[in-house]
Structures are given as structure tokens and as C-alpha cells.
């Protein structure tokens, strides 16, 4: 019998992001991000929802930290809102905004919870969108690095786990592509595919400059990571031919070959560049060296994947489409594919120059149609079923020696799910938005038990 026991050193956590939970959008000097502007325009988000109030975490962080302590997590991943720290995107630092994170971090530490801070989770300053089109301009990378310096020099005495940017492929593609469905902020439809690749290139450049800025500003030794969402190619069967096909397909997926490859190896994947042709971004001399910074860890958000099989065609593989009847959670893209977590670890380990680089699952979770029953409980059995299977796949990766060091569930709380507003719930805690009451779901209690026992229960 397998007990699915993780090593004692395995880190159990939960994750959130600033715009999705904080609210208090105009308080203490915060100015609009692209998400404030975008969600306020009619028709951009489901039901016209915005993050103006969200989970009101800005005012409720103390009780939310108590909730984390009750869950038993020792690690919490959250993000810092650029527009609280530097409201205009560049220029003066707003100390009142820094103070919020300072209080949050102190509260976490008082409860024995280690903070893991993401420096950018999609809420770009609207002022920079107006000034030069934010990520469409190369200037964004330097402004981002200056913002990072402002944060790390003020909070680096108490935060030592830093993540530069969350899911570059998502906010660039969904924010700018003509076929983004549904589009994300800023919602600009760029004319050429090359222009999307250029926003992506600016973002990985920002990551590189950000790494340098963190190391220069941190008063103590710290860990620097990127958070990526790889496209995970899963072999249809674990036979040598299909495994080889999945491995071959991995670097050709745009998000892998165009983000992970330059960051981890210092070069865009050659097969991807060949596919892109004229659509490849303009890369200036020295960019790849800047992008290819030494990392202390790599965060991976894995929710789903794609099945791949060996095929008798020039590429040697074929990616398989899901049919509508394939099991799916409550998002159009969220196919049930627990093996993706294991294959993500395996493909990425093959890509790494340093095979011991610590890997973390920085997000994994699912949306479900949660409701409060007559007893006041939320019995989210599909979320438990989902998490249990993905955690077993994580266990397999650890058992086979892949350097997976920890897992953060997405998310601690139901929250503003971007273009889907409050309609889609990813939390292990139910949020009753009219009253802001928090109700731990069945999955919360289940996850607490896993943490307590250090295994999949
Ligand atoms: C992530 N996909 O986004 C984000 O980091 C979170 O902010 C978000 O709430 C969470 O996952 C759930 O959506 C994703 O299309 C968006 O595969 C889209 C995809 C994956 C992750």
C-alpha cells in the first residue's frame, strides 16, 4: 500500500494575488491598475464585476491570517500591487502602500507563516499603460525593476522568498491577442503576432532585470524565482515512443519554448523560433544574458495539460484535442489531467541546466459550483477529488527523485477570477461576498488533514 507520505521538509502552502483579493482599490494612495480600468468598462468581465472590493482582504488580513493558521500552512504566497507601492508606475514611492504589506508580513510571521511574495501578478499601473502601452514598450522592463528595488529595499529584511512575475504567457497573450477568449486587461488587440511576442520578450527581460534588482537590494540572502505556467505535454501512454513524443512536443509549445527556455537556458527554443519565422520578437544584444539569470527556485502553476501521442508525420508527434465529454472542472480550459503535474516536473527537469534547482507548485486547484447547504456547509467533493489526484501525482514526482520541494493550493479564498468575475470559485474557503463571511469548505478541512499528516489523505 502506498501511503503517499511526503518528506518532512516538503512545504505546504496556499496562494492568492493582490487584485483578486485585496479590494480597497482607492485607499491609502493606491492608483488604478489596468484591471481597474478594464473591469470598469462595460462588457469586459462577467456581470460587470470588478476587484474594487473583492474579498476586502486589505481590511481583513488579520482574520485571514488566522484562517491560514487554522489551516495549518506554514507558507503563504501572495502578490504585491505595484500601484500601492508606486501609484504612477514610476516615480515617487507611496509609503502608506508599503506599510500594508509590512503589517501583513509581521502578522504572518507572528503566526509562524513564511511569506512568499510575487512582485507582479498582472496588475500593471494604468499610468504606464497610458504613457507607453505598458508591456508593449521596452521601457516597462526598467520601470518594473525600479519598482522591485523600492519593494525589496523596504521589505527585504522580512521577506526572503521572492517571485518576479506570475505566468508571463497568460497576461501577455490574454491581454493583447486578437483571439484571446475571454480577453484580459488591458484588452488591446495587437495587429501582428510579432507584437504579442514582443510583449512577452519585454516581460522576460523585466524578469531578468528584476532578479538583478532583488539581489542588489536585498539586505539578507534570499531566494529568487520565476512563476511560470508551462504547457504540459502528457504522453497518452507511458511507453517509450509516446514518452519521446511528449518530450519532443514540450519545447515547441510557445509558452515553454518562448519563456522557460530563454529564462532557464539563455536561448529561445530553436524549433519554436523556426516555427515563428517573421513573428519572432526583436531581441537586442545582451537581452538573453539579462534574461538568463541564475535562479534559486522555479515556481510552476499546473492545472491541466495536453495529451500527446507518437505519430507518423514530420514532427513525430500529435497533440490530441479533448472532446466535450472529457472530465472537466468549472472552467472551459480546466481538463482533469493529474498526470500533468508529474510530467511537468519531468519535462522541466530535462530542460534545466541545474537538475537540483528546487521546483515548487505555486498554484494548483480548480473551480467548482460551490453553494452553502442548509447546515451552512460547502461540500466541494469535486475539489477534494481533483486535489487528491494532483497531489498523488506530485508525490510520484518526489518519490522518483524530481526536485519538487513544495505545493501551494490555489486558492486560500474564493476571489475575483479575472474576466469571469466572482462567478467562478477557486477557493478552499467560501467567501459570501455580501457579508464577506469566510466559510471553510470540505476541501479546506481535507487539506488541513493532509498538512497535519504530511501525506495525501
Ligand atoms: C492562473 N489557462 O491563471 C492565475 O495565476 C490565477 O490568478 C488564476 O486565478 C488561476 O490560475 C485560475 O484561473 C490561469 O487558460 C489562467 O490554462 C488561465 C489558464 C491557466 C491559469
UniProtKB/TrEMBL annotation:
Pfam families: Glyco_hydro_1. Coiled coil: none annotated. SUPFAM superfamilies: (Trans)glycosidases (SSF51445). Its EC number is 3.2.1.21. It comes from the Bacteria. Keywords: Carbohydrate metabolism, Cellulose degradation, Glycosidase, Hydrolase, Polysaccharide degradation. It catalyses: Hydrolysis of terminal, non-reducing beta-D-glucosyl residues with release of beta-D-glucose. GO terms for molecular function: beta-glucosidase activity. Belongs to the glycosyl hydrolase 1 family. This is Beta-glucosidase.
